[in-house]
Design goal:
eight-stranded mixed β-sheet, alpha/beta, single chain
Length: 200
């Protein structure tokens, strides 16, 4: 059964990007440090070349590349320059946005959706029995609040960034329980996988 899974690299102090994130500096100042566990030397061209990975790091990236659709917030999507319209293997990308782009999207695999539950349902339909990869702090928060985020995969990097984009900085005071499914160490990172526990 398809699950919606947030995949996010995060510093120990809870940041997913450094300060001053902007086009051309999508991960903010020093934010590339959070991705060095799979992109050595912040070499974005190696995104599809995983031959250097082994152990838990390779297992996690294999899971990422096995997902069947992507749901992402518009800001995250634009900071990543839309991954050139192809996150991995041509899977459909659903961008959560209150407004349609003008002009129409330049990439055929990209669909703009205004509501998080609709975006998740459309992505799950397209993913079939594969999981849906979720990106973006605001998207994760909206999905948690709507009860449509099944799991969180946090790739915890042993660094303190001090400021930047927090993953859960604007969460409402809701109590959300998580169940640890996996904790695995890889070079430069600890992978934590949690199931979001349904309210009783």
């Amino acid at each position: 059964m398809s699950r919606t899974v947030l995949y996010m690299s995060m510093s120990v102090d809870g940041f997913i990007a450094g300060p001053n994130a902007a086009p051309g500096n999508g991960l903010g100042d020093n934010g590339h440090r959070l991705h060095e566990w799979f992109l050595p030397d912040a070499d974005a061209d190696r995104r599809s070349d995983l031959g250097h990975l082994a152990g838990a790091n390779r297992e996690v990236m294999d899971e990422v590349l096995a997902t069947g659709a992507v749901v992402v917030g518009r800001r995250t999507f634009e900071l990543a320059d839309g991954w050139g319209g192809d996150h991995h293997g041509g899977v459909p990308i659903f961008v959560l946005s209150r407004h349609q782009p003008d002009p129409e999207p330049r990439w055929p695999g990209v669909t703009y959706v205004s509501e998080v539950t609709a975006a998740m349902n459309m992505a799950k339909d397209m993913a079939g029995d594969k999981n849906v990869l979720v990106h973006g702090a605001r998207t994760a928060q909206l999905a948690l609040a709507a009860g449509v985020l099944d799991e969180l995969q946090i790739h915890l990097v042993p660094v303190l960034i001090g400021q930047g984009e927090p993953l859960f900085g604007d969460m409402p005071p809701d109590h959300i329980e998580l169940e640890l499914l996996r904790a695995a160490d890889g070079p430069g990172v600890t992978h934590l996988r949690y199931r979001v526990r349904a309210e009783v």
